[in-house]
Description:
About 40% of the residues lie in helices and about 20% in strands. The chain is of the alpha/beta class. The chain starts with a helix and ends with a helix.
Amino acid sequence: MNRTTRCALSLAFTVLGLAATSxxxxxxxxxxxPAPDFALPAxxxxxxxxxxxxxxxxxxxxxWSTTCDPCLAEMPHLVELYKKxxxxxxxxxxxxxxGPESRAQVSSTVHDQEMIFPVLLDEETTVAAKYxxxxxLPFAVLIGRDGTILHKRGGYQPGxxxxxxxxxxxxxxx
Length: 174
């Protein structure tokens, strides 16, 4: 294989890898940057601020939509994770990216999925722009008690919940 062919193949594999990541394939990573504060209306009408949990809770921000099948497949696992660890200071903030046209479906989905944690509405996607500019769905951000971003993960595949559980449990003992 000549040098030109090797370079072309290398470039092709690089481009394919970048394309897979930007099309919603699972991506993840660790970070230690401070989590930007935000305030969003909750489904129950209250305004929730991320800073309300600073210093006392490990927070999982889960960006989702009623039209996202992987989001809905992941949700039962998030509900169980929340039930298991809420007494230890774990909070899930489920941030719906549904716009006004699908807002009515949010309440029924929350009921059907038994989502017992705060469900926030980011219809203008202002919070998503800060945390998830590619708007991958689902997209999870784990924030430690100290307000720093511990992990980010885009996409969902069966089995991802085991890794998330491990990350949450590790954050709760820090």
